[in-house]
Amino acid sequence: YDPMTANTPVDAGAAGSTGTSAADQTQNFLKLLIAQIQNQDPMAPMDASTMTAQMSQLNMVSSIGSMNTSMSAMLAQMQSVNFMNQAALIGHSPAVAGNGIAFNGTTQVMMGANATDALKSVVATITDSNGNTVNSVDLGNVNAGMTNFIWNGKDADGNTVPAGMYYLSLSGVDAQGATATPTAYVASPVASVSKGDKGDAIYTLLDGRTVSSSDVQQWVS
Q1: Which residue, 144, 155, 166, 192, shows the most beta carbons closer than 10 Å to its own?
Q2: Looking at residues 65-93, what average pLDDT do you find?
Q3: pTM, two decimal places
């Protein structure tokens, strides 16, 4: 230990360790401690309790570093297990905000109206890609929250419509008599599951949408 060079900045581009790891800091602390003991004033030796406190603090820092490493490994393992559980949802249908309906020509579609407040005279209108009204569903009075309903793929005359894209719009009346629009939700089966950048699950739905697990408001099947 050289007091003349102890405070000299280390060249950032120099080869070797930067001295920032827990092991490096432990070695530096021990070198400083030995230097203190070797150069202490014989008439005023170091307080043993101070040395003990310093060692305890060093051990605590080292333990925290080990704990962080263990927690990171545990988190990675939990994310892996969660991903496997998410994969079991393939084939199930989440309800996700959106008004597009990819009708396959046969399967009925589960939909939802998510209202912030209770509404009256809520009507769900389904239109084709040209904006023509195909059918409508009278939901009546709905409470705050999600209200589910099913479109069976038929028009107002009871005929099954061709496969293709259709769109859902919602309208109701609030307590003050003003027009209100609940948030439209459309469900579609999960075709595949992938892992996102933050460890969350990304669902690819049969209707072509790609959504995060955090975007799912409700599982309907």
Answers
A1: 166
A2: 72
A3: 0.61
